[in-house]
Amino acid sequence: MVTISSNLLYTAFILYLIATVFFAGSIKDKNRTKKGPNRWAAIGLWISIIGFAAQLGYFITRWIAAGHAPVSNLFEFTTFFGMSLVGAFIVIYLIYKTPILGVFTLPVAVLMIAYASMFPREVSPLIPALQSDWLHIHVTTAAVGQAILAVSFAAGLIYLVKSVDQTKQSKQRFWLEAVMFGLVCTLGFIIISSSFSASGYKAEFNWIDKNGQEDVLEYHLPALTGPHEGQLITEGKLEPLAEMPAIINAKKLNTVIWSLASGVILYLALRLILRKRIGAALQPLAKNINLDLVDEIAYRSVLIGFPVFTLGALIFAMIWAQIAWTRFWGWDPKEVWALITFLFYAAYLHLRLSKGWHGEKSAWLAVIGFIIIMFNLVAVNLVIAGLHSYAGS
Amino acid sequence: MKKQRLVMRTVILLVLGAAVAYTLYANFTKDKIQKVAVGEKAPDFVLTDMDGNKHRLSDYEGQGVFLNFWGTWCKPCEKEMPYMNNQYKQFKDEGVQVLAVNVGETDLAVNKFSERYDLAFPIVIDKDSQVQSAYGINPLPATFLIDKDGKVVKYITGEMTEETIKNYMEQIKP
Amino acid sequence: MKEVKCDCGHVNPIGTILCESCGKVLEEKEKDKKLLDMRYEGSARRSQTYNKTIIDKIWNFFSSVKVGVWLIVITLIASAVGTILPQEMYIPPIMPAEEYYEDQYGWIGKLYYDLGFHNLYSSWWYLILIASIGISLVICSLDRVVPLYRALKKQKVSRHESYLQRQRVFGASQPEDTDKAFTMAKEKLKSKKYSIREENGNILAEKGRFSRWGPYVNHVGLIIFLIGGMLRFVPGMYVDKILWIREGETKVIPETNGEYYLKNDGFILEMYDKEKDKEVFGEAIDKAGMVAKNYQSNVTLYKKQGDTVAGEEADLKKVKDYEIKVNKPLKFENFALYQVDYKLNELNKMSFALTNKKTGEEYGDLTVDLNHPQDEYDLGNGYKAEVVSYFPDFEFDENGEPVTKSRIPNNPAFVFKMFTPDKPDGEISFVAIRQTIEPFGDNEYKMAFKGIDTKNVSALTVRKDLTLWIIALGGVIFMIGVAQGSYWNHRRVWLRRVNGEVWVAGHTNKNWHGLKREIETALDGTGIMMPEDQLQNQSEKKG
User: Are the Cβ atoms of A125 and C284 closer than 8 angstroms?
Assistant: First the structure.
């Protein structure tokens, strides 16, 4: 069952990639008729739907195998997020019929699933706090809400790719490129981690933690930053270039450095091949899109996603917290970041409704909103450990 | 119309302001809130002392009661015990009763402690924490001064000197 | 300043931008704009003209959405700062917070502590931020909902030409048969669930107006939620106590006024087992070593009968047996008891044997109940052991005297006096775990350690929260309001005859795509042309 499940996930992953190509193709297609999407886009849509179905299959089979909804650790959650993103895309595509949305949404979903698979993938049993029906009610609703909000990020990005002037130096051009660089770094992280893990790289260190306890730490990437008083015990592996004090998590820092470094290399390579900024290279894709329509897609995604997010990530979360942790709100970092996300999108809606922040301003906000969501997913789990930290590992 | 609007706005702002002020006030006094407040009637209890005599707080009405909660491991409690003992001897004929409530230790430990300091006042043990729960005790030592009408006059946490103990007993002398 | 009378005869309040009745532009500034700003229907939402008294100034400050957004943004940033380092309530109680932050995080930790960020969410300024958002919610809503309600209530069917022309969706055309076209369009709009109003042959089709109240409904929900949060501070509304209870022990449940008692019938800790549990978990269990499966306290709840005062032996009547697990609290009246912590194998009993040190011969065993030790243990035949001192949680103080740190038998130690027929005066021996001291030189006898008996201790949180229903009510109303405002749209379509032409204009508060599709189907076959999206045309010309 678990094997079937992971094969289905793999299938979905490949299908999403193919669908992206078709959506991109539909834009390049010269003989597109005036109205409505063309055949390329129709095929792209079908492939996305099949991919989504495959991933749904992964979800269901894994649920059966584990006996609980597969949303209990970082791998499962992030994969589910990716799936919801595709689901949200399909729904919004059916309303607006804009192939370019696929070109931006599906790669984000693909990145998300690839990123998820960097975490431990085995089916893990539920600790007592998670043994509740609220696990799947709360987590899935929150993830679906976030995924719908992520569609507004994709739409915002399309808006910016089209509207930011690539010929003049400007803050907008710089930051748009920075967002692109961030996406490339994620890709860099995935490539570097999966290649080293495929080659089975493992280096163990004896080290002293901040309480003066001796411990063993296992690196899966060559150590550039070594742990405090670390001694390499696996032979023939790279000696660290620098040793970190005990309060810094040298292993995580090492991963960050590797991701950045591979991101830089990948980015430079892309610049060499494309001979222009990534933003500029993407611009032709957005040539035929109507800015107002993209703006509306971004806004509607927020409108649809915001209530779902609030329900899942705050209201259901509070109900469950009252049952499992004795209080509905306890200022745990994850809770606080859900509140921050809520406040941010509340600000977005107020700015839009009352201050008339449409178009480009609104698009930037959608991008920032997604960065907050990602921060809550990645950093809060891995860096600011709180009660939710069992979601990672 | 104009006047009406001003009155309306003033009222709404006052209500909101009062709510905020109350919340802030409550938030900063919440740690200080005592279960048994000064001026209230001290909750009644019955506990048995080391000789098997029952002590009911309400039976001491007409006398001042110096109600002390303590534990053998608590250093400040230990330090103030001899002072209390001395002052008890002075004041017991003037109508001040000392009740020392141990917070549920073993008879053995309490007996040994009492023998060591030769304590004259009755020592009772609150085995299942009922009395501590009723008085909301935390941390030790905690002392309630109860007047002749059974009302709490003062609540003291932390160590007392012999001088202050004397003053307190003076306060609740009937 | 006086009220503004429009050409159509309607009298509008001061500051009105678009006439409530006919929609004519009243504000000079707005007159040159190609498209109307339709926010709040152009109503007089805030009369800055009343800005003379301090009350009006405060009012207008909180009435500004700009201020509201700033409050939200500041709160958002402040909340984020509070997650950089753990809050005080989450740090382990190994040392005072003051030292902990510096010890763990260096100067950053010290700064964090000094700035008071270790308790950020209960700091006075954070509370004031939240309270200001609450005030802003009340005032902003009041200032907008009333004029908006007026404007929507007073709107006429025949809107002014300038109003229609400057709608985002607008078009003029000449169908062959205007009357027939109107009838057809009317039927189609009706089938799309529009409510139709007619006046002088003009049509106003409107639907989903209630979605305009969504924001105000959700604000009401939020205000109720905040009131619930505020009531938490009222004494008696909220209880948060912890109850440590040993197996076999019966204790009064704090804050129940001595009404309820709880007996711990046993604590159970289960771990996942590779052999017994699902096979798929094998790999994860191997990796983690141990994974907890269940924390459970089996308890019996008792209610006190009759009137007794504290300390008196209470007459207890069993209410129920219950298995308290994580996610499965025991509820009674307004209270709930939660499984939150445990301590395994707390020492309960210790056994010794009075032994002759040379021969090793034993003269009888004694078992000390560490929570109820006796004064002496008679072993018969003239052998007995007297407990001179007992230290449940023993350590040596700074003077080298044995003392106890607490009343919990974590590290019990005894001073025994051993009486034997050959030593009638007794020998003194100090016995602690893995340690024996003989203060008066060599003894002939010793208390040989025989074994221990342990018990588990459950920690249960005692919770009462009378604000929950208010919080829940606020949450429900908020969700209704948000859904109402997000998932329904307020759409209006105007059809007006102007000099033999048919003017069509449409407005929606959001989702123009949907509105245009509806107008398209409604006008299909009527001969009236589909109106243009003037905003989109503008931007297309630009880009």
Answer: yes
